[in-house]
Amino acid sequence: MISIIASDMDGTLLNNEMVVSDFNAEAIRQAQQQGVHFIVSTGRRFSEAQPLLAAQGITAPLITLNGAEVYDASGKMLDMVPITNSVARAVFHTLTSKGYYFEVVGSDGIYSNSKAKRIEQIAHLLTNLNPDTTFKIAVSLASARLELMDINYVANYNELLADPTKHVMKIIAFSEAGPSKLKPLSDEILAKHSSLKITSSSASNIEINNINAQKGIAVERYANMLNTPMSDVMAIGDNNNDVSMLELAGVSYAMGNASPEVKQLARYITDTNVNDGVGKAILEVLAKQ
């Protein structure tokens, strides 16, 4: 009997227009009406994720930043697992010395040290999601979107570490070269810092968190709060940063657009994110209850 459903957002719950479809929203409401707890588990920040649910009238707990933060349905933070300052400083040095552009997700917002690089990364994301969009147009769209996004620009990321009220929750490094460059970089960082966990939400990035800030660990903590065994948990995802929750959940679904690793790991495969795969998986499980 499934009591909790945990879903990723990007590439999973969200379609390529970055919204929750009506079909997915209705399936979630049906699950909640039947007493099933629905929780979103995402690499996004709370302020980026919650409005996407609210737009469909969905109220649900949120696991954010790959498990670094957990919020209840009212938006109250239940847990926080940051990267220590000493480790963050060392990672900053490694990435900077090797010439990688990276961003820092702090407890109070996203930080970048280059507006131009920020625009470039958003443009690459837009062209990946919409192959018919030229890079030049994507740059224009990205520039416009930046004005709407809560971005803090700093000259040096170490400035964040000097403020005791701020915490480094996640570090995201980018490379359009993909795994050929990012895999060796990940291996080097992990060899130096056993307190870290590195995942990715796309082929062109790596996401660096505290080793205890993983989606699977956070979902399990949430399940424990409800006295629910993981055998009664269903997880849905599409990418590397979803692996930990797919491994721990009793029922696991990979999206039709999921990475080969995720498809091989999951027990079931549903439709793609543009064809309401989450909603279809939810209704399939509810029909068996």
UniProtKB/TrEMBL annotation:
Alphabetically ordered keywords of this record: Hydrolase
Molecular function GO labels: magnesium ion binding; phosphatase activity
Keyword Hydrolase: yes
Signal sequence interval, chain numbering: none
Superkingdom of origin organism: Bacteria
A Pfam family recorded for this sequence: Hydrolase_3
GO CC list: cytosol
Name used for this protein in its record: Cof-type HAD-IIB family hydrolase
